[in-house]
Amino acid sequence: MNLLKEFCLSDKCSYLPDHKQTTHYKVIENCSAFYSQELIERGYRRFGKMYFRPICEDCHECQSIKIDVTNYNFSKSARRVLKKASDIRTYIQKPTLTKEHLALFDKYHLYMHEKKGWEYEKTSAEHYYSSFVTGHEDFGYEVLYFYEGELIAVDLIDILQDGISAIYFYYDPDFSHYSLGKLSLYHQIKYAQSAAKKWIYLGYYVKECPSLAYKAEYKPYLTLQGRPNEYEPFIWS
Questions:
Q1: How many structural domains are present in the chain?
Q2: Which among 182, 230, 215 has a CA at the least distance from the CA of 66?
Q3: How far apart are CA 151 and CA 90, in angstroms?
Q4: Tens-place pLDDT, residues 37-69
Q5: 230: in domain
Q6: How far apart are CA 53 and CA 45, in angstroms?
Q7: All residues at 6 or more sequence positions from 203 whose CB lies less than 8 Å from its CB, including other chains
Q8: N or C, fewer C-beta in 10 Å, the chain?
């Protein structure tokens, strides 16, 4: 493992309007699964070789959240989502970059720009590769969703020692009637249960951010207390 650089940046908040955000970054070459687990447990997220977490002094709205897989029970509506998607096929592999990936990624973000006002800028192959392909080491994967041979969704995850860390998910809005966001999370939970993993790390829950508030619907869950560094114990409650 090689820590290439470490720095903090302040910018407008990604989640709450009229807020500023300070983020701590670690850029790590050849990060081990063990150290990645240590960082995720302490509230970091991974994009490519970059691990980051908010460290805003006057705001604590971003709460790291994880689902208790051992005690999770699928509701009737969850079972309906899984049943409806019986004609969708999935395939798990190491992260890749194809023209289909880029086209789907842009289609999804243009849709979210029109539907929810997300900022939109056409992605480049270089940006996608640095965010979602590089840095996966021996624990990063992508789950590809296909309908009649057509790529309709991509779920990027890390499979760690005690759980799955959800990195990013995007899908074809033409297939939104399958509730693909929910479907991908249900698949993560089912896999974690079958592999005796304890947690699904969902990143940040922000109560006042509609794009993140949904995470509290998946119960039981725990949230991380404070912002422990990698040399301090962590408490989830």
A1: 2
A2: 215
A3: 10
A4: 999 999 999 999 999 999 998 898 999 999 999
A5: no
A6: 6
A7: 45, 64, 65, 166, 212, 215
A8: C
3-26 pLDDT, tens digit per residue, is: 999 999 999 888 888 889 999 999
pTM to 2 decimal places:
0.95
Helix then strand then coil, % of the chain, to nearest 5: 30, 35, 35
Nearest to 141 by CA among 108, 82, 187, 83: 187
Structure tokens at 235: 């408490």
CATH number at residue 144: 3.40.630.30
Is residue 186 a contact partner of residue 72, using CB atoms and an 8 Å limit? no
Q: What is the pLDDT of residues 209-224, one digit of tens each?
A: 888 888 999 999 999 9
| Confidence bin at 83 (pLDDT 50/70/90) | very high
Q: Which amino acid is at 220?
A: P
Same domain, 147 and 79: yes
